[in-house]
Amino acid sequence: MRISDHIQCIDFPCVEANQESYLVPDLELDPASIRLMLISETAPTDPLDYYYTSGDAMFARTTLQAFQEAGLVVGSIQGLLHKGIYLTTAVKCGKYDCTVATCTITHCISLLEREIALFPNLKAFLLMGDVAIKAINTIARRQGEPRVIPAGSTYKIRGGDFTFHGRRAFPSYLQAGPSFGIEKSKQRMIAQDISHALTTAEIN
Predict the structure, then answer these.
(1) Fewest CB within 10 A of the end CB: N or C in the chain?
(2) Are 90 and 135 a contacting pair, CB within 8 Å?
(3) Helices (DSSP H) in 8-101: which residue ranges?
């Protein structure tokens, strides 16, 4: 299955998002092989920094570092996919500002909702940052379910026992991009959260 064939934005209603950097995973894979989905915030402003771009893509580099610090021996994004780990963003366009408007998340979650539904064997979600957490909570409310992750700072809620559609959900910090290299304490917490998600998804 080619993921981008099943997830497409047609009308681009989000004036607050950078539509020129619209990206969905354009890769062929067996959706039944995916057991862990990592969701970060937005597509990068520069498409060359995306997870699935060849070369020294920033999202790929910092994400691989995070998984390696969690103890997973892997050297490429293809290696993560081979182990059953899929990477995507809650919002498929880049952002103009440091923040992402709530209306942008609300518009874009229909794509994420369809994306999640492609993978029948998911065991866990890694929700990397506030945008990913808000996106999952918004999807849950749209489907008539209670919010998945409670309100509160990530520091206080991470490590809790949360589920979405019967699968564990792990709230954590954003691992993609330049912010990952700033705070060592956050890097350690991200590694811990990834490690717990890997155990839940039975990935080693």
Answers:
(1) C
(2) yes
(3) 58-69, 77-82
DSSP 112-164: HHHHHHT-TT--EEEEESHHHHHHHHHHHHHTT---SS-SS-HHHHTT--EEE
Angle in degrees, 0-180, between the axes of helices 130-142 and 102-117, rounded to the nearest 10: 70
End-to-end CA distance of the chain: 25
CATH number of the domain residue 94 falls in: 3.40.470.10
pLDDT for 54-91, tens place per residue? 878 999 999 999 999 999 999 999 999 999 999 999 99
What separation in angstroms does the CA of 107 have from each of 16, 92, 101? 11, 10, 10
Tell me, yes or no, whether 21 lies in a domain: no
Q: What's the domain count of the chain? A: 1
